Amino acid sequence: MRLRCSLELDLGDEGLADLVHRALLPEVRSPPSFRSSATVGREGTRVVLTVESGDVSSLRAALNGYLRVLSAVLETITPR
Fold it and tell me: What is the mean pLDDT of residues 4-27?
């Protein structure tokens, strides 16, 4: 059985969406484990991240990794 989780982020700004999309691309292209795979796409102001895995624990681990990257990117480029 293959598990899938999709996250759709509406960032409200095309420039910000582009930056987030480009920041996630290297992570998606070379995942840290062979147990999961991911895709990332951009549609206007939205970024869509989809993660697939064969088991719950690797899906959770992969999601946590991508969310950490996303959090770091947003903290770095978003003014306080």
Answer: 95
CA 63 to CA 61: how far, in whole Å? 6
Q: Are 66 and 73 within 8 A, CB to CB?
A: no
**Burial code of 31-50, b = ≥16 C-beta within 10 A, e = fewer?**
eeeeebbbebebeeebbebe
Q: Which pTM value belongs to this model? A: 0.88
Paired tokens of 68: 């950490």
- Superfamily in which the 3-77 domain is placed by CATH: Alpha-D-phosphohexomutase, C-terminal domain (3.30.310.50)
Domain ranges in the chain are 3-77
